[in-house]
Amino acid sequence: MKKIVKHDQDVTKQHNKQMILDIIKKQRPISRAEITKITKMSATSIGRFVSELCEEGFIRETNLTSSGLGRKAVMLDIEPGAIYSIGVDIEKKRISFGLMDFSETVTVYRRVDYLAQKSTPGETAELICREIRAMVEEQNLPYEKVIGIGIGVPGVINYEQGIVQFSATLGWKNVAFAKRIEAELQIKTVIDNDLKVKILSEYLYGSAKGSNKTALIGIGTGIGSALIINGEVFRGGSNSAGELGHTTLDPNGNLCDCGKRGCLQTYVDENSLIMEARRVSDITDVRQVYAAARNHERWAKEIVWRTALYIGITINNIVCMYNPDTVILSGDLIENYREIVDLVEEHSEQVIWEPFRGTFKVIPSELRGDAIVMGAGALAMQHFAPLAGKQADE
Amino acid sequence: MKKIVKHDQDVTKQHNKQMILDIIKKQRPISRAEITKITKMSATSIGRFVSELCEEGFIRETNLTSSGLGRKAVMLDIEPGAIYSIGVDIEKKRISFGLMDFSETVTVYRRVDYLAQKSTPGETAELICREIRAMVEEQNLPYEKVIGIGIGVPGVINYEQGIVQFSATLGWKNVAFAKRIEAELQIKTVIDNDLKVKILSEYLYGSAKGSNKTALIGIGTGIGSALIINGEVFRGGSNSAGELGHTTLDPNGNLCDCGKRGCLQTYVDENSLIMEARRVSDITDVRQVYAAARNHERWAKEIVWRTALYIGITINNIVCMYNPDTVILSGDLIENYREIVDLVEEHSEQVIWEPFRGTFKVIPSELRGDAIVMGAGALAMQHFAPLAGKQADE
Fold first, then answer.
1. Interface residue A4 vs chain B (CB under 8 A)
2. What pLDDT sits at residue A389?
3. What span, in angstroms and rounded, lies between the C-alpha atoms of B170 and B165?
């Protein structure tokens, strides 16, 4: 049922002010006259909103002036130091942090070693809080300027309630992780599935810029996927869409650590590569397989060839289910051996359903290691920035 | 970027009038006082909108009066004969039609035999137009009361442009089918993928009522899927999401008529059942396999058991990718042997990824054969009903 249209002046004012801030953020530097032209609002209204935003510290007048004919106009820009968010990326062997300013630039990175399987949720939260405190203090930032924390976590995440429902990488089940961080630091915190954070990042800053129908496949230890359509991350019923790794290929296939047989990730992730390789060579790391393949060793080339075939199948299955116009390949398995993207292309005639051939492009991730830190920072900005639309829901 | 809030009085009036019509449609019969209470608008405004809607013929005053205390109020209802739409379901061997009135009841059904593979798009359009004309004339309906036609077509459909991009069932490629019907009958026409129409129908009238995160699997000759989230059919990038049948299970598996190997539909559709059965028995129809299974013939029970296993795998893969709270099983393969739903349930421990177990229910379709006719009629109502929100886009 449609909602009644209300002519609430405060709501309208807030909405227009936010819109002007968004315009300045996206098109900076920009003059008052240009904003007036874009919004078709009166110059007086624009002037008033701009003054308010200046006073509140969100924007500032720059030394630049407009270059066209006529009277020189002062250019407006946002104030990067107005507010900050913190993006966190929890991986199997390390945790990465980034301090993102209001211009959505990550100005400080930080990384610590970590052993997911040997750390309790409590220890992990403690480590994260300690590092965030150190980072904020090193920068001499007042805590109230940090408006939120975003954390990308590998696993099935209840995004609305901030709960890690299940994470094979971390070995956690039903951990209310966002609340632990909030309680300790008194900073609002949002957590989300790592690949959903990553695709948001690719959409805002990376390979998916300008595409509105992008799927991302992440292959490392395990395999997963995410989808963004018209700027919205596709979440499914309870934020768990995209768990590609446990789709079944073969009911009599390889045993997976989830207890099922024939899961896709038993054919294509790092562990499956290493297990294959160990039949003929004493290796411990997937990079050794890649080195051997580059060295034209027959067994390694065969493994890489077969991996490319299964990546091709994965792409076909994603395209059949999600029908994207772009597929981004990401994760350590890809990033350590970019040549594999061409090999996948060679298989495409064999593995892609004919009506979909030519309807999408396959590209490697642009952002690589920092994507999740950036996306998590952006997620926190979207959720917690003052004035932003989302705030009314808190 | 957010849009500027405009205080356009006509738009607001139109919006509120449509809302009142929607309320009457959903909660009929209803009194003016109840509408006033729900909308929180003034009694005068409600009175004026109701008068307008009566004059325009969309609603009427009934003989019923309200039952509570106080002054008896006249109850309002919609006028079923105000406008009509026509729903069409094109299948391999028949085409079904339904005349849907403004109360969204299909009052007349019609069905004709048809051989998809032996008919050109032109012949098919001719047949459809002839039957629609006959149906409208039999009912003595003035043509201008039929505001639109909706058609469910098996295949990859460009929904916005009304083009059948690819249909294996019909043997068509790139046919601008909606335009043909429109040109012939001078009635606006929308076409969509059959399973997308079916899930809309299940959402509005059937098993998916009340669930907002429902996936549907259709298994007959071929296998496909659809998803509805918060009342919106999930379309993917170009309306082709859900092509489950050509996801690959095994790169060395059964050859599919699409030219690939190991497509899911080579393991689970009617043709695959028949082919399996013909190794040991001279059957031509899947119903013979089911009859034999009911008769406890070992080979037939084995085939049905294996089919249930692959349906279970299909459900796992849908749930991993879409994360729905309900999965509807539909199509001839299910509807001719409802017992299979229990057999699928028995496999679930083996085939469903553990974190998703218990997060969704599996139910057979309620609407069976008429779902697509009803959904197509509803689709046409949504698209073409006067006053409705969509009309502004035409």
1. yes
2. 39
3. 11
A159, A298: one domain: no
> How far apart, in whole angstroms, are the C-alpha atoms of residue B41 and residue B56?
21
Please report the ipTM that was assigned to this predicted complex. Answer: 0.86
Return the bridge partners of A95, or none: A90, A112
As a residue count, chain A comes to 394
For chain A, positions 222-241, list CB contacts with chain B under 8 A.
225, 229, 234-241
DSSP type of residue A228: E
Find, in chain A, the residue whose alpha carbon is nearest to that of B247.
Answer: A317
| The predicted structure's pLDDT at residue A138 | 96
Find, among B265, B287, B289, the residue nearest to B279 by Cα.
Answer: B289
The answer to whether residue A1 sits within a structural domain is: no
- Chain B hits for A316, CB-CB cut-off 8 Å, are 246-248
Q: Is there a contact between A247 and B316 if contact means CB atoms under 8 Å apart?
A: yes
Residue of A nearest to B389 (CA): A2
pLDDT of residue A63: 79
Residue A149 has pLDDT above 70, yes or no: yes
Identify whether residues B109 and B218 lie together within a single domain.
Answer: no
Name the residue range of residue B65's domain: 9-78
Q: Are A322 and B241 in contact (CB under 8 A)?
A: yes
Q: Do B385 and B241 fall within a single domain?
A: no
B16 vs chain A: nearest CA distance in angstroms?
A: 7
B217 in A contact zone (CB under 8 Å): no
At B80 the pLDDT is: 93
Do residues B99 and B107 touch, judged by C-beta distance below 8 A? Answer: yes
How far is B365 from B363, CA to CA, in rounded Å?
Answer: 7
d(CA A307, CA B36): 64
A335 and A267 in a single domain? The answer is yes
CATH code of residue B333: 3.30.420.40
Cis peptide before A324 (omega within 30 of 0): no
A43 vs B184: CA distance, rounded Å: 53
Which of A30-39, B66-75, B133-142 bottoms out in mean pLDDT, i.e. has the lowest?
Answer: B66-75
- Between chains, do B313 and A251 touch, taking CB under 8 Å as contact? yes
Higher pLDDT, B180 or A62: B180
Q: Does the distance separating the beta carbons of A324 and B246 come in below 8 Å? A: no
Give the helix/strand (H/E) hosting A380.
helix A371-384
Q: Is the same domain home to B175 and B294?
A: no
Please check whether residues A255 and A214 belong to one and the same domain: yes
B259 inside 8 A of chain A by CB:
yes
Each residue's pLDDT tens digit, B118-171 = 999 999 999 999 999 999 999 999 999 999 999 999 999 999 999 999 999 999
Whether residues A223 and A191 fall in one domain: no
Shortest distance, CA A345 to any CA of chain B (angstroms) = 16
CATH number at residue B60: 1.10.10.10
Domain count, chain A: 3
Burial class (CB in 10 A: 0-12, 13-18, 19+), B264: buried
Find the farthest-apart pair of alpha carbons in chain A and give their distance in angstroms, rounded. Answer: 76
Contact B226, B193 (CB under 8 A): yes
- Judge if B98 and B168 occupy the same domain: yes
Q: Could you tell me if A366 and A334 are in contact, meaning their C-beta atoms sit under 8 angstroms apart?
A: no
In a domain, A203, yes or no: no
Give me the amino acid identity at A388. A
